[in-house]
Amino acid sequence: MVVVRLTEVKKETVELTERKYNYMGDAIALAVRACTLTALDLEEIGDTTTVAEVDQSLRQLLDAQHQLEVEERLLTSLCSSSEHEDPESVYMKEWEKDSKKYAALGEAAKYGANKEYCEFRQQVWNVKHEGETMPPLFGAGGNDSDEELTIAGARRTYKCPITTTWLVDPVTSKTCKHSFSKQAITDYLRAKGGRGACPVGGCSRVLNREDLAADPALERNVARRLRQLEAEESSATYTMVQ
Ligand SMILES: [Zn+2]
Prior knowledge:
By secondary structure, the protein is mainly alpha-helical.
């Protein structure tokens, strides 16, 4: 009887832990998005000092996210595994071990391999360098992940490879990071029966509808670029009239 009740308590604790961490994880994800959108606006007006401050804030958020993941993993495994003599000291020991390990990591290991951070830097880069390859974030060789290097070095344009016109409701593939106008890629995949080769020349990935996610930051960058072009055009007209 006692055993059954203990198991129930544990189950509740695990569920509570998961709910709590999901909630905090969502809050961090929202803050990361807010950082990105803010940095894009600041980059557009050329306030690089404040962009650097937002960059620092983002790194702190990613540190917090890491801590949260470690805590969640430790607590969940403590709650669901068989009896520990002293769960608290097991927890503290593991926690300290991981904290030391993380603190010893360099910037490249902490952030250069972090997908969200690389995406952030890429988006900020795109504001002023559309179509240009972003230099490696932490120097050459600072990143040991091939996939992340590809993302960091990806060339991004604001035109859909299918329609060859400006991206409309852009979606980005989670597997190859190529972006498309939502309607165009949806039609393309539907014609292929739900999945097909990435339409970008030289990309060998196969795309599924589930691999495509809305890309609000890219959408903003497209809108920004269009505003820039419009401003350039109207000032050109103005000069001509003059
Ligand atoms: Zn692709």
